[in-house]
Amino acid sequence: MSTTDRPIARTAIEDNLQSITQFLRQYPPFMHMDRVHLAYLIEHCVLRFYAKDEPIIQPQDGPVEHFYIVKQGRIVGRRGAEDAAPTFEITQGECFPISALLAERPTRTAHIAATDTFCLALNKKAFTYLLGHRPAFQDYCLLRISGLLDEAMQHIRQQAAANVGTQHTLDTTLGELLLREPVTANPHMPLYQGVRLMDEQQVGSLPVINEAGFPIGIFTLRDLRAVIASPKADLNQPLAQVMTPAPHYLTPKHTAFDATLAMAEHHIAHICVVENKRLVGMVSERDLFALQRMDLVHLARALRNAPTVAALVQLREEVEQLMQRMFTQGASPEQLTHLITLLNDHTSTRVIELKVAEHPAPLPEFTWLVFGSEARQEQTLYTDQDNGILFHAETQTEAEAIRRQLLPLAKAINEALHECGFTWCPGRIMASNPELCLSFSEWQQRFAGLVRETSPQNLLLSTIFFDFRGLWGSTEAVEQLRHQVLAQSKENPAFQRALAQSALQHRPPLGGLFRDFTLSKKGEHKNTLNLKTEGLTPFVDGMRVLALSHGVAAVNTLERLRELKSRGVIDALDADAYAEAYHFIQLLRMQGHQEQRHAGKPFSNRIAPHSLNHLDRRILRESLRQAQRLQNSLSFRYKL
Amino acid sequence: MRLFFQRKARLNAAQQQRLARLPAPHSKQALNQRLVVVDVEATGLNTRRDHILAIGAVALEQGAVMLNQRFYCVLNREHEVNDTVLIHRLGPETLAQGVSVEEGLLAFLEFVGASPLFAFHARYDAQLLTRECKQHLKYKLQHPVVDVAQMAPLLMAETPQQNTLETWLARLGLSVSERHNALADAYATAKMLALLLNKAQRQHISTLMQLQSALKRQAQEQLPAMF
Question: How far apart are alpha carbons B53 and B102 in whole angstroms?
Answer without folding.
Answer: 12
